[in-house]
Amino acid sequence: MKTQVVIVGAGPSGLLLGHLLRAAGVDCVVVERQAPDYVLGRIRAGVLETVTTDLMTRLGLDARLKAEGLVEEGFNLATADHLIRIDIKALTGKHVTVYGQTEVTRDLMDAAAERGLRVIYEAKDLALHDIDGDAPFVTYTRDGAQHRIDTQFIAGCDGFHGPSRKAIPAGAVREFEREYPFGWLGILADVPPCHPELIYANTDKGFALASMRSLTRSRYYVQVPLTDRVENWSEERLWDELAERFDPLSDHKVTRGPALEMSIAPLRSYVFETMRHGRLFLAGDSAHIVPPTGAKGLNLAASDVAYLSDALIAWFARGDETGLTGYQARALARIWKAERFSWYLTKLMHRFPEDGAFEHRMQTAELDYVATSRAMQTAIAENYVGLPL
Ligand code: FAD
Ligand code: DHB
C-alpha cells in the first residue's frame, strides 16, 4: 500500500490528525495496535480547552460535544475546609468543556469511514523504516500476514509506550524527565457530582479531585503512594476516603454508587524535545507527558496536531517547508509552558512524602495568596483555559 502520511496510533492525536489531513485532501492511513473497543475502554482526560473543541468544530464533528458537553466557567482549588473559586470566565473571557476523551475518540472514530479516513486496527509488531530518507515505510502484521505501507511522512501519535519515539537514534535525542512519588487512584460512577464545578483539593490526607463526565456521572481521584495497588482498595474504602476529603467542601454531597472503572495512574513530567527526525514527526503523548493536575495532556496533543496538520497541508499544497521546519520549536514553546503549569499545580496541591512542616506552610501561604490576589487567579485561569496557539 502507498499513502502520503502514515499515522501510527488511533488515540485522540492520531485520529484528529487523520481527520484534519483528510479534510484538506491529504491521503493518509492510521495504523493502530488495539481493537476499537479497547481504545474506547481507556478512561482518561475529561476537560477540554477551546483549542481542542475548536478543532472538533473546524472538522464539523462537534454536534454531540455541543449537545452533551458541560461548559465550565470556573473551577475550585481547595484546602481541607474551604474552596477558592477561580472564575475563569470573568478572568479570561473563556471557558473549558467537560467532555470525556472517550467521547472525543468515539466521535472521531464514528466519522472516519464517511470522511474517507482509513484506520487499520489490530496491527501488530509495527516497525518504522528509513525515517532518515525520502521514502520511509512502516511494516506490521495483521491476521498472521505481513504488510508494508510506503509513505512520504510518518506521524508518531502512538503514546508514551509506542515505537515511534524509540525509532529515533539515541545520538539525536534530547529528553527531560521528572517522576513523582505518588499516583492517582480514579473512580468513575453513575452518581451526580458533589459540586457543580471541579474541585482540586489539598487535604491533610493528600490531594483529591472531584470531577465529572455529566450531571449524572462523576469522576473522582485521590493521591495514593506509588507502591499502592488498585486491588488494595475496595469501592467502599474509596468512597469513605472521598467522603472524608470532600464532604467538608461540598456540604456532604458525595453520592456513592457502583464503580464503572477504578485504576491507578502514575504521575510523570516528560519532554522528548526531538519531535522531528528526518521524515518522522512526533505528536501528543509520544513526545511528552504531564502530570494530570491541570488537565493538559489531551489538550497538548490537540495543539501539536494543529501545528503538524498545518505544516503537512502547506507542504502538500504548495511545497512550503517552513511549517515542517518550524514544527518542533513551535510545539515545544507551548509544551514547556503546559509542563510548567502542570508541575506547579502538582507541587501546590499534593502532599510530597519528603516534605516537612515548612513546605506545607509554603503551600498554605500560596493558596492563601491565590485566594486574595486577582493577579494570581488570572495567571492560573489563563493557563487552565489553555494558552493561545
Ligand atoms: P494515546 O491516547 O496514548 O494514544 C496512542 C495510541 O497509539 C493508542 O491507541 C495506542 O494503542 C496506540 N499504539 C501504541 N503502540 C502502538 C503500536 N506499536 N502500533 C500502533 N499503535 C500503537 N490527561 C488529562 O488531561 N486528564 C486526565 O485525567 C488524564 N488521565 C490519564 C490517565 C492515564 C492512565 C494516561 C495514560 C493518560 C492520562 N491523561 C490524562 C493524558 C491523556 O489521556 C493523554 O495526553 C492523551 O491520551 C494523549 O493522546 P495521544 O493520542 O497522544 O496518545
Ligand atoms: C479530569 C482529569 C484531570 O486530570 C483534571 O485535571 C481534571 C479532570 C477528569 O478525568 O475528569
Automatic annotation (TrEMBL):
Keywords, in A-Z order: FAD, Flavoprotein, Oxidoreductase
One GO MF term: 4-hydroxybenzoate 3-monooxygenase activity
Name of the protein described by the UniProt record: 4-hydroxybenzoate 3-monooxygenase
Enzyme class of the recorded protein, top EC level: oxidoreductase
Span of domain FAD-binding: 2-342
InterPro entries in UniProt: FAD-bd (IPR002938), FAD/NAD-bd_sf (IPR036188), HB_mOase (IPR012733), RIFMO-like (IPR050641)
Enzyme Commission code: 1.14.13.2
Keyword Lyase: no
Domain of life of the native organism: Bacteria
Pfam family, one: FAD_binding_3
Entry-linked SUPFAM superfamilies: FAD-linked reductases, C-terminal domain, FAD/NAD(P)-binding domain
Primary gene name: pobA
